[in-house]
Input
Amino acid sequence: MLRKTVSLLCTLALFVWSSTACAAPKDDQSHAKVKTYFNRLATDAGARGAELRLFLNLMPKGGDLHQHFTGTTYAETYLDFVKTEHCWISKKDFSVITPKDTAKLPDTLSVDKLRSDNKMLSDFYMVWSDKDFSNHYHDQTAPDVQFFGTFANFSTILKYDGALYTEGLKILKNRAQLENVQYIEQMFVSPGYKVTNPAFDAQARGAVANGDIAQLRSIFQNFIQNVVKPDPNFASGMQSYAARVKACADAVNDDTFTLRFQSYVSRNDSPAEVFSALYTAFSEADKSDLVVGVNIVNAENAPVAMSDYSLHMQMFRYMKELFPGVKTSMHAGELTIGMVRPEDLTFHITDAVMVARADRIGHGVDIGYEVKAPEVISLMRDKKIAVEINLTSNDFILGVKNGEHPFRLYLDQGVPVVLTSDDEGVSRNNLTDDYLHMVQRYGITYDRLRDIAANSIRYSFLNDKEKQRQLAMLDKRFADFEARMAKMIETTPKH
Ligand SMILES: [Zn+2]
Output
């Protein structure tokens, strides 16, 4: 705890340094040429999408701070895993069948057989991702159900052979490097330790309903002392998680690429499960250099997530006090009108910032509906609480895009903005694609673009020394990129 707390105290000093490091444009010819070229391109963004994509694909983008491992892995890769593990796909529902499921074997397809049948393969992709959701007729599924429903398919094959996680990470690293991303802060796996306890559930929910926060904190304290800490599975779960995280990081980290992890809990678990998993996640993040933060995930509009929201915020606040050096990014405000009751749209980001004291907000889409929006925005600006913007994901799940999306509101109000990918495999896009949407929709200048890319390092949960190294690397990459683009601009024939 001490180490991370000391590190926390240095952050302000670093921010003063880093906020100018990458944003300051280099006063050289290449930079000026590229800036003029991009700003002209951006004013005609609708007609020049291909040219913009070329530019944005080659442009260094720093890091991706909001990425889920299972949702970022493409269905094609999962099929490769199913094949190499000698497993099958169910004819009935396209789930994975392992050799252990002998009862289901007659109803299976080999991966080769599936791949040889265009119709079946197309149907498979529609179950395992958002592919072809919008471009032709199919039985109507709600987009959020479609999106979150894909995740149930991924775990069977990953659990069948734990080594697949490492293979998957190598593939994601390769993809990141191909689009000039040097750092990923990934929601990878949870420590796995969680316990059910109906008595805790009832007491904790009762205390929140009565507004008795002192009582709630006493329930939390007792649960840690009497249930979690004495449980041998807690210590062993932490140990195996730490070993697993280290092995995976070692397999991909090198001088050119850095991977760090966020641990997380599921907001649709029971209160005892969320609390025990959260305590484990914070405990691990507090002592690990590889696990740099804690998050809360899953569909925010699901019944348990909605009814336990205030309880979850109190849990995070309690943990932040126990472990002041641990950073948190929290999915909050991934909601919109029509999805839940209007009154349910009024406080999620507010509570994540003001009650749970989140260091970053994931999505933040419903800010326009929140009754304390001006105060929250002001707090996010003053305390440098960045918002992770996921344009493709928000468009698909929530149907929120263009001017309805609060991207411009956050940007204009001075809230730090980072562009992130969420679940590339489910959405079938990449980070460059979201950069393109940003430029096409919101008229971004080159200086702003560079600033947003640099934000992905500035507002990462890396330690100060590593942040400086990553920012210097990003600066160097921008210099190389601008020199290369300037050459292309110079040699473009004049028509
Ligand atoms: Zn997410």
Observations:
- Residues 66, 68, 331, 362, 422 surround zinc ion (CB under 6 Å).
- The first strand starts at residue 62 and ends at 68.
